[in-house]
Amino acid sequence: MERNTLYALFGAAGIVLVLGVTSYLNLTAPDDGIGANCNDGTLNMQCSENRPNMCVNGNLVENASICGCPTGYEEKDGTCRKIEKCNDGTLVNSCSSSKPLYCENGELVQNAGLCGCPEGYLINEKVCVLKNNTVSLTRVFSYTVNGTKGRIELPVYSDLKVYLANISRKFACDGACPTYSQMEMMILNESKEKDELGKLVSAIEEKASDKDEQARIAISLVQTIPYDTYAAVNNDIKGRYPYEVVYDNKGVCGEKSRLLA
Q1: Dist CA 26 CA 89 (whole Å)
Q2: The 3-state secondary structure of 99-143, one letter per residue
Q3: What is the Cα–Cα distance from 212 to 208, expressed in whole angstroms?
Q4: Which of 91, 146, 210, 243 is the one with CA 20 to 30 A from 53?
């Protein structure tokens, strides 16, 4: 047989042999689980540092049930979803620590029937009402306008003071947080103190009909409220509501400014 014919036969047999061995290995070799790593450095079939991603044959895929979720998220059906909260940190569909507030769709709403009321208050459908308006004491506020001195007497209630003092001053937020002005308006628009502060406004209006004169009385009256030196020196500033300043008859500058707002 000629040399060229031998080479042709050997070459053909070699191809068949190689193909046979390859086929055999593919059919019989066990899967050792070794695949391509991912481009962020995560090894194959390992969780990435960027949860909930897992490296699968060179591709990062979501697998929250195995790899977990980042802070602020929870696992749901293998994926991560953001944990919704209200601005005081209360989870959605949960009662706030500040009764009777309830976190509903990211907003704090009153739901006394579900969350209850602070001590000294009764449930009235979804809101809380004072058990009674027992006068704790009467505050006397002095003022001086154009050299003329005056005074205003105002009954104040401990139940309302306790209610306001127990409202949380903490705000927790994810993403968009309320601005400083918005947080101030939350304090100034507290519904339960508005009626009582309105009595102080009415008392000032009775002293003078002129708006400018009323403003001078209000400014002088607030200026005569004692400065809370203890809180300032001992770094014990609690951020009183305006009615608390009236009840306590003291406050730091920021607290007294709110009373004038």
Answers
A1: 56
A2: CCEEEECCEEEECHHHHCCCCCEEEECCEEEECCCCEEEEEEEEE
A3: 9
A4: 91
Backbone angles phi, psi at 18, to 5 degrees: -65, -45
Q: Indicate the angle between helix axes 253-260 and 180-188, nearest 10 degrees.
A: 60
Closest residue by Cα to residue 146 from 201, 202, 213, 200: 213
The alpha carbon of 257 is separated from its chain's Cα centroid by a whole number of angstroms, namely 25
The stretches in the chain having pLDDT less than 70 are 1-34, 131-135, 171-172, 174-175
Residue 172 has a pLDDT of 67
Q: Give the DSSP letter of residue 2.
A: -
∠149-151-155 over CA atoms, to 5°?
Answer: 170
Structure tokens at 195: 């009626």
The per-residue pLDDT for 192 is 81
At 189-226, the pLDDT tens digits run 888 888 889 889 999 998 888 999 999 999 999 999 99
Determine the 3-state secondary structure of 61 from DSSP.
strand
159/130 Cα distance (integer angstroms): 7
144 exposed, middle or buried (CB, 10 Å; 0-12, 13-18, 19+)? middle
> Measured in whole angstroms, how far is the alpha carbon of residue 75 from the centre of its chain?
20
Closest CA to 230 of 209, 204, 250, 210: 250
Q: What is the pLDDT, as a whole number, of residue 248?
A: 92
- Phi and psi at residue 66, in whole multiples of 5°? -100, -45
- Using CB atoms within 10 A of its CB, is residue 73 exposed (0-12), middle (13-18) or buried (19+)? middle
Whether omega for the bond prior to residue 70 falls within 30 degrees of 0, making it cis, is: no
Asked whether the beta carbons of 228 and 250 are under 8 A apart, the reply is yes
